[in-house]
Design a protein that fits this description.
about 220 residues; single chain; rod-shaped; five-stranded antiparallel beta sheet; alpha+beta
Length: about 220
């Protein structure tokens, strides 16, 4: 082998042979190093792709949760939500007919929802009979009773009460008091107001001022 390698002046042929041998012995290591670099690059790319996919998933979950919360808020705002307030309670009776009595309740209805709502009003009267037994009766609000109150300046709710969204209406409810109650002891008057969705709220009154009507 040495006879085939040209010698450099000063014995450089042997040095050149050693140089080529070292290169040949290093090539497998270079190939191995290249394979390691490629594997590392693939691993880095795979890891980066996994991180990106995770970030996309987290963002998608966040947006979905945010959308759900907004939808829930919007739905809750349109649900039945109202409150009542009792302003005054009166009993009107006629001079000519003492048995003719009208119970009047001045209340405010606040519609707190984002949509218009309709209401119905009932009066529950709880009383004690002559035999000391407990009883109760229900009376519907009757707007037509306003014609029995002369020279009145009151504002009355219609039988079908409608209140716009985020609005408050303050008017009077009218109920015809049954004649047989004249001989009974009234325990309490309970106003029950319910909306079209079945949501119900109550107002209680135990004292009612009595006024004489001038026929």
């Amino acid at each position: 082998m040495e006879g085939l390698i040209p010698r450099l002046p000063g014995g450089g042929g042997v040095d050149l042979l050693l140089f080529f041998q070292s290169i040949c012995s290093a090539m497998p290591q270079l190939e191995e190093l290249s394979v390691i670099k490629i594997d590392t690059l693939i691993a880095i790319i795979a890891a980066a792709a996994a991180v990106i996919a995770l970030l996309i998933s987290l963002r998608s979950n966040y947006l979905a949760k945010k959308s759900f919360q907004l939808s829930k808020i919007e739905l809750d705002s349109k649900k039945s939500n109202f409150k009542l307030y009792l302003i005054n309670a009166l009993r009107f009776k006629s001079k000519e007919n003492q048995e003719s009595r009208i119970l009047m309740f001045n209340i405010s209805i606040s519609n707190l929802s984002e949509s218009k709502n309709s209401f119905k009003a009932l009066l529950k009267i709880e009383y004690i009979r002559d035999d000391d037994s407990f009883a109760k009766t229900l009376i519907e609000h009757d707007h037509n009773l306003h014609s029995l109150i002369p020279n009145n300046n009151f504002s009355f709710f219609l039988n079908d009460i409608n209140v716009s969204e985020k609005e408050t209406e303050s008017k009077w409810l009218l109920f015809k008091e049954p004649k047989h109650f004249l001989n009974y002891r009234i325990e309490r008057y309970l106003l029950e107001v319910s909306d079209i969705n079945g949501e119900q709220k109550q107002l209680e009154s135990t004292l009612i001022k009595t006024f004489q009507l001038n026929d």
